[in-house]
Design brief:
Helices cover 15% and strands 38% of the residues. It has 233 residues and is α+β, with helices and mostly antiparallel strands. It has a domain of 147 residues.
Length: 233
């Protein structure tokens, strides 16, 4: 038999293993300690997935956080590693997961994951969900010339993911949409203004198509968000 034919199945197996998420029974590397903060522990609605957050304090403000997905006796790291703990929300079917990641004082990014092969993997590849949302914001006709924000730049996931935002009066399919609110402030503004920037501009992300849109009923509120400011008394 041709030796190439004999080794082909092993090559196929190796490629399959390389493509699958890396599973580890041992969990995080040495030095990372599981936090005892109950607000940083999350379980999927179906109870099959638990999220554990581990911290390593290297001193001199060198703090690292890792999030690990636990399903039974298998653990997989939920990248990327960050400098703060994070909040999470699942969709009701336990198939989608959003990470609300603090990145600094008053600043936050969003990361989106999808359930695959017994764990969660990035659903937006190289860019974060918040990066995609900001790109959508600055790509719209009415916001193309909106100035770049300087600080407190934050992408927020609005509450209601688990019940299709029905408390907000929406009539959407279950496990289909995410509502994202974008905000931030400018460093320079008139002397009679305390704060000026973007005040909670909202868009909708379709988990089925991977596209953003703005429902017509949000147009008035979003127009006001573009003019957000706090005047001095």
């Amino acid at each position: 038999m041709n030796p190439i034919c004999r080794t082909a199945p092993w090559l196929a197996l190796a490629l399959t293993l390389a493509a699958a998420p890396a599973l580890a029974a041992s969990g995080p590397p040495p030095g990372f300690v599981l936090t005892d903060n109950p607000d940083l522990a999350f379980t999927s609605p179906d109870g099959a997935t638990k999220l554990e957050q581990y911290m390593k304090d290297g001193g001199d403000w060198d703090v690292k956080w890792q999030v690990w997905v636990r399903r039974g006796d298998q653990m997989t790291e939920l990248k990327p590693e960050q400098g703060y703990g994070a909040g999470f929300r699942f969709t009701a079917d336990s198939q989608w997961l959003v990470r609300m990641q603090k990145t600094g004082s008053g600043e936050q990014d969003l990361f989106l994951y999808h359930a695959e092969n017994g764990t969660f993997v990035s659903a937006t590849r190289k860019k974060s969900l918040s990066d995609l949302a900001w790109a959508y914001f600055y790509g719209r006709p009415e916001t193309k010339t909106f100035p770049k924000l300087d600080f407190h730049i934050s992408a927020n996931l609005m509450e209601g993911t688990e019940d299709a935002y029905r408390p907000l009066g929406m009539d959407w399919p279950n496990n289909r949409y995410l509502v994202i609110s974008l905000g931030g402030e400018f460093d320079k503004h008139p002397k009679n203004t305390v704060m000026k920037g973007l005040g909670g501009w909202q868009c909708r992300y379709d988990l089925k198509t991977g596209k953003f849109d703005v429902p017509a009923e949000w147009a008035k509120r979003n127009a006001e968000a573009l003019k957000w400011e706090v005047k001095r008394q």
